[in-house]
Design goal:
Blueprint (H helix, E strand, L loop, with lengths): L8 H17 L14 E5 L2 E4 L3 E4 L2 E3 L2 E4 L10 E3 L5 E8 L7 E5 L3 E9 L2 E4 L11 E6 L3 E16 L2 E9 L11 E4 L2 E12 L3 E8 L1 H7 L11
Parallel strand pairs: 1-9
Antiparallel strand pairs: 2-3, 2-6, 4-5, 5-8, 6-7, 7-8, 9-10, 11-12, 11-14, 12-13, 13-16, 14-15, 15-16
Organism: Phytohabitans houttuyneae
Protein name: Peptidase S1 domain-containing protein
Keywords: Disulfide bond, Hydrolase, Protease, Serine protease, Signal
Amino acid sequence: MSPAYPWVMPRRIAHLAAASLLVAAGLLGVASPSHAAPLGTVYGGDPFRSTAGGRCTVSFTVVGGFLTTRQCASRVGDVVYTPGGERLGQVAAVGPATADYAFVRLDAGWTPVGRIRAGGTLIAVTGATPAAVGAAVCRYGSTTGWRCGTLLAKNVTVHFAGGVVYGLTRTNVCSEPGDAGGPFMAGGQAQGMTSGGSGNCTTGGATYFQPVAVPLAALGLTLLTSPAPA
């Protein structure tokens, strides 16, 4: 299966070059000491920037940090920033080239919360039970917001411009640049991280996600959850 997915690799290279120029110009700082004072909270769905992937979206928060996709945080040690240029933390672990996940460890002072921040709404992540084929799923991205559709197939092999990724889940939910890494949900259950796809949210398309169970198990991480609304 070979989706067009025209917006991953070309934009990734462009973002890397742009971020490098910002660092050189002193507009994005290089690694700095961790802060001790409270800095803020981090939720799934929040936008962030890194030197490896440009603007992306936090997938899900875990103890000590958050998950995102490999294309957004491909090198251990890369510094990750808020959209305004404030340091969030560093990439602590990256999955193999045949998977699409990474773990960012937050600097002291940032607090990860087990919810999705979707615009002005906070949505509780109550667990990570996988949805069945045919189930309704929704994803949040920092470019296109909430988009919903149907889970079409699991354990799909996808040939992206940067290489082959195995074990993805295919949906008919649309996505666009900047949505990469965003959380896929089925009700309150975490499903996975937006990996890529074809089309856009004007004409429609297909989007694939990396199941969240893979990095949780591979890296020994604990998903942060919150109680469901009463």
